[in-house]
């Protein structure tokens, strides 16, 4: 038969274990309530879907069409194209880039209706895609910029 001191120690251990289990049970109940309430919230307040590229183009068109004629002219296009310059390129951006010449080139390339002075909402996607392609072709990658480490002078930049 165990000694009375050993029985007392076992009783204390059992009571501690019961208290711990009781505490865990309360925590489980709280966690269950939190899960239920979060499910209710998610059911009521659904997360908005990520806007599509067309939604973003619509927002940009509305933002940069400053004269509200539903057409983007060369000056407005320059400001809009700056939005699509990647951040690592934007930091070292030459002043005047994109230029009015860039905008007129893009206007001439993507113009469907033949006016070559403005682009409509339908032509904006082609203009943005052309601008992205031009940036990708004329801008060294970040790794190339690191390899060059400032060795590329102004005369070597693509104009």
TrEMBL record:
Superkingdom field: Eukaryota
GO MF entries: calcium ion binding
Keyword terms: Calcium
SUPFAM superfamilies: EF-hand
InterPro entries: EF-hand-dom_pair, EF_Hand_1_Ca_BS, EF_hand_dom
Keyword Calcium: yes
Name of the molecule in the record: EF-hand domain-containing protein
